[in-house]
Write a structure and sequence with these properties.
GO cellular component, one term: membrane
InterPro entries: Uncharacterised_TM-17
Protein name: Transmembrane protein 216
Strand content: under 5%
Number of helices: 4
Order of helices and strands: HHHH
Shape: rod-shaped
Structural class: mainly alpha
Oligomer: single chain
GO biological process, one term: non-motile cilium assembly
Function: Part of the tectonic-like complex which is required for tissue-specific ciliogenesis and may regulate ciliary membrane composition.
Radius of gyration: 28 Å
Largest sheet: none
Helix content: over 70%
Number of strands: 0
């Protein structure tokens, strides 16, 4: 959601910078330089936002990485809902 808001607010910012650069009656050289830099930043912001949206759309959040489950399995801990004591727990009780 914040990324969409940022994309939506980039366009008015770029429009106002182009207005100050091209359509304003009296423009100082410093204002022209600063508005040119602002338009450069707006363009790079739009490019990075598009790349971010493309990256997020490729990797769905419904398919989380299996690293946590793998680390739990390697530690010898397994979910046991039947009430039986696992081999790891028996080993820990005997020590």
């Amino acid at each position: 959601m914040p990324l969409a808001i940022s994309v939506a607010l980039t366009f008015p910012s770029a429009l106002m910078a182009s207005y100050y650069l091209l359509l304003q009656t009296y423009v100082l050289r410093l204002e022209a330089i600063m508005n040119g830099i602002l338009l450069l930043f707006c363009g790079s912001e739009l490019l990075l936002e598009a790349l971010t949206l493309a990256a997020f759309s490729r990797s769905p959040l419904s398919n989380p990485p299996k690293l946590f489950l793998f680390s739990v399995h390697c530690a010898g801990v397994r979910p046991d809902t039947s009430g039986q004591v696992s081999a790891l727990e028996q080993n820990q009780k005997t020590q």
